[in-house]
Amino acid sequence: MQYMLMIHxxxxxxPLDPEAWGRLSESEQQSIYAAYQEINATPGVSPGxxxxxxxxxxxxxxxxxxxxATDGPFVDIKESINGYLMFEADDLDAAxxxxxxxxxxxxxxxxxxxxxxxx
Length: 119
What we know:
The chain has a single domain (2-115), classed as Dimeric alpha+beta barrel (Alpha-Beta Plaits). The chain is 29% helix and 33% strand. It contains four helices and six strands, in the order E-H-H-E-E-E-E-H-H-E. A hairpin with a 2-residue loop joins strand 3 and strand 4 (66-71). The protein is flat, with a radius of gyration of 16 Å.
């Protein structure tokens, strides 16, 4: 089964936020980098890409045949999706075990796991 693991950063420090990232020790920063390297090297993992902050989003809807594009996310949320990865695993338990290794899960964020639909 293929799963998408969506990384909700919450207020987790990332290198994209130098002030918050700078509050982590060098050891903590290196630990986060090492964890992501290990996750990306896990068999069955296809690393995804990181995403820009929610305020860079554009939300698109079509209403009565008209395209409506709105700056920013549709809802005001605390935990935005910062990135994702794909994981080919035997079962949900394996996806949960991998998600638990993602640094954001232990630093104030959350990991949402969804099975990918087969067509």
